[in-house]
Design goal:
Blueprint (H helix, E strand, L loop, with lengths): L6 E10 L4 E3 H7 L4 H8 L3 E3 L7 H15 L9 E5 L10 H9 L7 E4 L5 H14 L5 E9 L9 H4 L4 E11 L5 E9 L7 E2 L11 H5 L6 E2 L1 H22 L9 E4 L4 H11 L10 H4 L6 H11 L8 E8 L3 E8 L6
Helix pairs in contact: 3-4, 8-9
The structure holds oxa(dethia)-CoA.
Oxa(dethia)-CoA binds next to α2, α6, α8 and β12.
């Protein structure tokens, strides 16, 4: 059988979120905000906050271990690891290498990070799929793991209310079955709008100094209104384009699993696609925006809640800093429990 015939599907999925919950009521004691403002403008009720020793590689390793356990596989069965994160444990080495060591994956496999912010999971899925379809890798772990609480300015009410920490992992596997798993995909980016959502300090262009720390250059900054506008347009367009590429109508899609950024963004995208919110599951209320972790978290929840069923068409779509975006159409193959 030629490797071009291989499909790639999600054999198992696992998640991990920190125990600590930070509620809107607590936040309103930290900055000038209210539960009412946060809920109305974003749909967020609370978010999870990682503890001091709890890093993306730790949360990602737990999510990945859960996926492996559900698949009745061991770490040595994994042939490839890709971690999507915008909050790596350290500038280098990659979070993937740290996770590899924590999980006990083999040493003869590629392990690397993908940096595409909130679109990272969708980007990483596509990279994994293309590497696997060559036949060189049978099983891959794709992990989205974030500790946004470490880059949020807790005195900036326009951003600190939105983000949270967590991780989700999928175990991908190749199969000769047709029309299953990752069917079609679209990725895009617009670096001309990089400044709409960025962190200017701490990299090689502006290494951390006492002054940069004092000026808060290592924190995430965002032009929320502009990001909102781009997010709605690009997520709706990405869905339409990937559906047209796959010759599928939006009515045929059972579930849309969007990056969980803001409930009003989801509502606007659903409305542009003429799809009811009952097909746009959201966990924003409990987790906020967890960047690259948000899609696997929402996907796992929609599946464990009994929403997504074997054979369903599922469309995942993301948008984030870069700017970046991406969408993937999946034919759901019931993962092992
Ligand atoms: O993963 C992708 C990353 N990011 C996103 O997707 C975020 C996209 N943007 C958004 O979600 C929204 O733009 C926000 C939730 C960030 C803001 O909502 P908005 O409806 O665009 O509000 P706004 O920025 O226009 O602010 C309205 C008012 C302002 O006061 P004035 O100027 O009208 O007096 C803000 O200062 O609300 C004020 N405000 C707040 N008030 C209470 C901003 N943040 C807060 C806050 N609590 N936390």
């Amino acid at each position: 059988m030629s490797s071009a015939e291989l499909s790639v599907f999600i054999r198992a999925i696992g998640v991990h979120t920190p125990e600590r919950k930070l509620t809107n009521a607590e936040l309103s004691k930290m900055v000038d905000t209210s539960d009412e403002w946060i809920k109305t403008r974003s749909g967020i009720g609370e978010r999870r906050i990682a503890g001091p020793g709890e890093n993306p590689s730790d949360m990602g390793a737990k999510a990945a271990a859960k996926a492996l356990e559900r698949a009745s596989l061991t770490p040595t069965d994994v042939d490839l690891l890709i971690v999507a994160t915008m909050t790596p444990d350290v500038p280098f080495p990659s979070t993937a290498c740290l996770l590899q060591a924590k999980l006990g994956l083999r040493r003869d496999i590629p392990c690397f990070d993908v940096s595409a912010a909130c679109s990272g999971f969708v980007y990483a899925l596509q990279v994994a799929k293309d590497m696997m379809r060559s036949g060189a890798y049978r099983r891959a772990l794709v992990v989205g793991a974030e500790k946004l609480s470490s880059v949020v300015d807790w005195s900036d009410r326009t951003t600190c209310v939105l983000f949270g920490d967590g991780a989700g992992a999928v175990l991908l596997e190749t199969t000769s079955e047709k029309n299953v798993g990752l069917l079609g995909n679209l990725l895009g980016a617009d670096g001309n709008n990089a400044e709409l959502l960025h962190c200017v300090g701490g990299g090689s262009a502006a290494p951390a100094t006492a002054d940069s720390l004092r000026d808060g250059k290592h924190f995430l900054r965002m032009n929320g209104k502009e990001v909102f506008r781009h997010a709605v347009r690009v997520m709706a367009e990405s869905c339409e384009r990937v559906l047209s590429k796959c010759d599928v109508k939006s009515e045929q899609v059972a579930w849309f699993i969007p990056h969980q950024a803001n409930i009003r963004i989801l509502e606007a995208v659903a409305s542009q696609l003429n799809v009811g919110m009952d097909r746009f599951p959201s966990n924003l209320e409990r987790y906020g925006n967890t960047s690259a972790a948000s899609i696997p978290l929402a996907l796992e929840e929609a599946w464990t809640d009994g929403k997504i069923k074997h054979g369903d068409l599922v469309l995942i779509v993301a948008f984030g800093a870069g700017l970046t975006w991406g969408a993937t159409l999946l034919r759901w193959h019931e993962p092992t429990r």
